[in-house]
Design goal:
This protein is α/β, with parallel strands linked by helices. Helix content is 41%, strand content 18%.
């Protein structure tokens, strides 16, 4: 397995290789790089798709200390540097989108475009912190997990039973305690909304119409706040991970956006 070491962490990634323009993708909370298999399958011949497993997800490790989305952005840039890639499109879903925004803010000249799915650039409101902490603290505990998995997958994945079953199996077999540091990263995120005007490359904003973590207002707000040209698309019937549950629609939008990027 390919890894990049940063301090006490080991960051796992997948890379389709090839000479095409590079796209770096980050997954949503509780998931891993496999959520981008529909994009690898559809776009992997035209583009070099690098999918990163963030700390505590998939084969990636953490060093047991708290981390932020800025740390995850630096992890991602370490992978890009390791691969010897100069300029990339950065993107992601939910947590991965928060990381992508910070990647763009850390190294603007190296970013050709930004793709964010189900993203808000603001800090988490206090009322939401309570609900997220209750669910995720329970997840990290030792109580029966099946009812919580079914609830979480209905909210986050949506889609069909076929879409959800592989993730149920992963979650049931995984180390539940790994979610703790990720929870703190999510709940304690800082706002970068005021900085979005500094991102002047083209941006693509996607949102599932049934996404309960980011609202239509969030999507409109973030689209308008970018400093460069930005387009918003809503995926009808999708929840938080439309790239996984509605890949044909999302891949078509991806392809149009990527084809229109300046060199």
């Amino acid at each position: 397995m390919p890894f990049v070491a940063r301090g006490g962490t080991k960051i796992h990634y997948t890379d389709t290789g090839g000479a095409g323009p590079a796209i770096v993708l980050g997954h949503s909370m509780l998931m891993d790089n496999e959520m981008f298999e529909p994009q690898r399958s559809a776009l992997g011949r035209e583009y070099r798709i690098v999918a990163i497993d963030s700390r505590g997800h998939g084969p990636s490790s953490d060093d047991g200390t708290p981390f932020s989305y800025w740390d995850l952005a630096r992890d991602a840039w370490a992978v890009v540097d390791h691969l010897g890639i100069d300029r990339v499109v950065v993107g992601g879903v939910e947590d991965g989108a928060s990381t992508a925004l910070r990647m763009a803010l850390l190294a603007p000249p190296r970013v050709r475009g930004v793709i964010v799915i189900g993203c808000t650039a603001r800090a988490m409101p206090p009322d939401r912190r309570v609900g997220y902490r209750e669910v995720l603290d329970y997840w990290a505990g030792d109580g029966p997990l099946t009812p919580t998995i079914k609830m979480v997958s209905a909210l986050t994945i949506g889609g069909t039973l076929e879409d959800k079953l592989p993730w149920w199996d992963k979650w049931m077999a995984g180390d539940r305690s790994r979610v703790r540091l990720t929870t703190e990263c999510l709940i304690n995120r800082d706002s970068v909304f005021e900085l979005l005007g500094d991102i002047d490359c083209p941006a693509l904003v996607l949102r599932g119409s049934s996404d309960q973590a980011s609202s239509p207002r969030d999507a409109l707000e973030i689209t308008a706040a970018f400093g460069g040209p930005a387009a918003l698309h809503t995926i009808a019937g999708a929840s938080m991970v439309p790239n996984l549950t509605h890949p044909d629609a999302v891949n078509e939008i991806f392809r149009d956006f990527l084809a229109g990027l300046p060199g």
